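Input:
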Amino acid sequence: MLEKLREHIEKIVPLTDGEFAFVSDHFTVQQHKKRAFLIEEGKSVKYTYFVISGLLMLVHNDDQGKQHIAAFAMEDWWESDFLAFYTQTKATMSLQCLEDTEVACLSLEGYDKLCAGLPKMEHFFLKKANGGHIASQQRILSFLTSNAKDRCEQLLKRYPSLFQRVPKTLLASYLGVSRETLSRIWRSS
Amino acid sequence: MLEKLREHIEKIVPLTDGEFAFVSDHFTVQQHKKRAFLIEEGKSVKYTYFVISGLLMLVHNDDQGKQHIAAFAMEDWWESDFLAFYTQTKATMSLQCLEDTEVACLSLEGYDKLCAGLPKMEHFFLKKANGGHIASQQRILSFLTSNAKDRCEQLLKRYPSLFQRVPKTLLASYLGVSRETLSRIWRSS
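Output:
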């Protein structure tokens, strides 16, 4: 099941079988049912997750009990409450399965050992972190500059499969638009 | 002038004098006057910048000519149009000096050579990239969950000196509020 992880890593750094065995030793694989929580707000965050199959949603519930969607994560994506994970503080977001999901789990201790033991992996994680930083900078820019219609169209263009897999109510929340607005844009695109 | 850079790096990884000499070789130092542009939209992005002294603003101008502020950067911060820098594409944002500013400049070639030649620096950049990713995730969350007043108060608490140094009109734009709203919150806090 970790073959997907190997393919994913080898897009950036090639690995020998021995190196991949070393990498694998730091991961555990978990299967979760739809609606299960991998991270719960207020609790500690054990892992950063690589999605082997399925779909996750990173959400924050505000004081009024309103749900805000920070991110979706599907196959080949990494997700966690990164602030809580890296600083070993309590989660301010929850990570929930929107489908039956299989993940490869890496603890902070495992992450540090992997980086120290295999410089290639430190290089791999640097590339992924820079990619994540870029994606976040782009999303901030889209909040500042784009109207709802443009944000929908950008998302549809970049991740068409999200529109097939994520309930429209959740997509609308992620984009910061009403369910009705999303449907109108969706029909006209 | 690169002593500040050394102190900054040594908060994460200690360096010998020889190692720091190697690091220094990859940077150039530039002085810029207030209002000068380090990056211009539509042009290529040569460097990622470490701020030795002064203050920068990362902005995007939309099709209607409206200015959106993605970030401020002051002493000890790194800033660039990271998408354009890492992928060597044209800038979609500009980076402008709000004060006379001194920066240490690192090219992508220099960045790659530094990481390959000194694993400690790859480790340093990974820590910084993870920190940047966390900060972006927090800012996205603040857009989703906070009202203008909360965003102002968070910023004031975290970076009080920004309120002294950045013109209120620009702070209001960064926070996505009107100049009047910001003044009202500012007076009452």
